[in-house]
């Protein structure tokens, strides 16, 4: 195409307004429409700005793509765009610059007409928006000069400075009724001021409502004197009624008024009194001599409504004002001022009742007014992207450069103060009084002191909603008053007007013009809410707000489309207070109350070691009458209380009863781990070197487990959110003896990086040259979208600046996360050549904060809990396995995930409500050069995984399946409250049916075996009742046989494991030809180290019969078989009720000589149930 023409300074803001409104109300996630820079026709225009994100959105009704560039991508939809837009006509594949906002509006309205053609629509939507466009242009062309604006008071300047209006209202400046001359006379945007017109209305025609017992004196003396001169002694028979000048002319021409004028029941007095000026609402004026607001009627349609005052609306406003006054709200809440309506007045002429209606509103003293600003006017940007609020913030820190990173701490402090005087008192007001205020930006004023927020001032009582059950009875208010609302509706209104319309707008505005990010301000908001003291009721609503997944938004555009303002359409958007957290929001750790944590740790290691060795038949033992006994020499033996469980005939020990008896010495002692290992060496056939390594692992497990038990969260795990449960669960592997060896971590590193102890950390970001690495992404994401998961536009610009200083090009590198431990111990040492040659460039950028998951190397993003998790290569050994990431598995990760995700998504047999969530690994990066040193194998790699939070629905929570077997900090099972509420059988049936059965179904139906041990599963539940499972870790956790796949044509092109890898890890492979291997792979993980542990746990803590447990599972399997006879052959092929299962020997393989896959055949619990039934 020819050169791109950009929008002009005035209209580009309208592009922002209309695109943002359209995207938000149609729930278009703009991040999903980000495209690679080189795919955008705008790339050449902004090529020097790597912080620019490019998007493409298709308007299907017009068969047109709109290309744009984003400067600021907002979490709540307040995006800022670059000024260039391009249209691609798909009919003839032509490109053209888009500069006329009317053309964009036509695309939007045509799209809406097409999407909602079955509904009754406003046929004038396009013309209404065009009217708003023309008026905006008129205001900008005729706005007062800077000199005239500076002459206004700060308060008046903000009231009259909103040239664009509501940023999410497509007809924000539309009006039908005002001519251009009227607009010049009466528009606040043009700095208007004028005198009011007065009517004298006979008292018999007056309707008046007052909020105070002693009515206020609202008419100024000068007007009264003039009226007295005109009416003489008749003044006592009349009420004076002020009107807007435009409305006075409207009324004088109204046929319904003529007879009243002729009879002198209504007398027009003309222009009288002080000069007033209109506030942002146009019809409300400020009376500077009276220090009052006056809400007038004008029969002009502004935005979507005629702006007169119907009686029912005035009654609601006065009723609300009475409650504010009678309950002394302003006295009870010192950080808050609510301006009540003092008097409402109109005429008893039905045709003119709404048109004459006025309300006098309490005002502010000149001293308060001097430091008070209307918030909507503070955040409207001018053509230079400046906002008046910035100058106020600057007053609080005159020496700070607010665009500098150094200012972040100050801005955060300033914002916390704002939250304290706005959000917190209004939550308390609702919680304790049931009063929900319409605290949108034009109704909200803020009094500042020395640049800091001091007191929130609210106006317009017509928007107040009150819950009658939540406030003390007020007999002065009728039961059928329109001020009364349900708790549900009033809470929705408060969340929308206060959080979305007010707080979100301010956060976005501040983030646009300073160095701080929106996410950081949302984190500060959450932190302030959780740290400040609330009343008991206030805390309840605080928690409701911060734990709600979504927030309501009134869809102004759709409501205009449908004329549904009286019964508005609401949509739900992601709650940023829930989404953005940060390390400071974590539940603090404190020293454990269990002073014997070292003993507990040592007991755990010894018992788990012996249980594994006994199960794997590594030495001879006797089991009788609840005790196990084994000899380690002719004169030394061990005894321990024990129980043989039904599940796999596992023997579980009571480690506190473990005794070492020496016949020669005649002693009975409690053995230490060191002594036990020395004794076991005498009776176990082991490779000496491997046995010593195994000893080291076990000792490290003891030391590090003791360290993790020394601290615990200040609250029980069951009360914590998923991301903290995922970290703080202390169980680890319940069978593997070296369950917490973490070889490579010293104790300081374990404190910093272990999930149970970490307080969160940032990773080391580097730029890795394209020639050094290979990146494979899911079909659902591109590189730009991946970067946006970690970095803001400001971050990307900072990274680009750093790379420029190194004289390299951003596009030649991939931004790569490295675990800080891995950077210090491995990469910085063994990749020195790559660093010296600028193939790896360390970056000075923080990025998000992360909290490790149970697997240690997988990190949850706690800055944004719905963002991607990182699985990072670590040359750390835990549970006897190196935690590097084999390159072939990294390259397969996204392909495997997409494959499995699509299979599950298209499965029409599994009910939608219990289809497992597939937490996709959407990208994998690994070094692709020949390694020079063994230590480099798999050392530089990352896998990106979806967050469970991106899948949760309102009312749902998540808990790691490992948590189902966890004893909480209060020494009760984590699941105890669920068991007590639902009953163990009902709860267990839901768990087995909804979480476990679908994994078996995937093997039966599709031929895919999943390694679904407990750590790879997350339970999604509603108040503890199981809904479904989320599954994860697929890059090396799926096995299949090509000829057994239901749809082999869908199998992606996967990379095989190299021979060298198979030698190191013989159990790591993808394909097999044996259906039994697929079944055993599933059952080993799902049966042995998952379900069996749960069955034993329920037996130990609730005395629940294990036979009953497995019988319930078999019944659920049989029900599935009966429901789907079409899979009869597959049920036999992958028979979960076969007599035996092959189980991997996780302990023995650590010390036996050969490196090979070691399994043992063990009876299948489901098979044993059949035998019991047949006996």
TrEMBL record:
Pathway entry: Siderophore biosynthesis
Record GO biological process: siderophore biosynthetic process
Domain of life: Bacteria
Aerobactin siderophore biosynthesis IucA/IucC N-terminal domain location: 155-379, 722-966
Gene3D superfamilies according to UniProt: 1.10.510.40, 3.30.310.280, 6.10.250.3370
GO molecular function: acid-amino acid ligase activity
Aerobactin siderophore biosynthesis IucA/IucC-like C-terminal domain segment(s): 413-560, 986-1154
A Pfam family of this chain: FhuF
InterPro entries xrefs: Aerobactin_biosyn_IucA/IucC_N, IucA/IucC-like_C, LucA/IucC-like
Record PANTHER family: L-2,3-DIAMINOPROPANOATE--CITRATE LIGASE, STAPHYLOFERRIN B SYNTHASE
Protein name, entry field: Siderophore biosynthesis protein
Organism this protein belongs to: Acinetobacter pittii (Acinetobacter genomosp. 3)
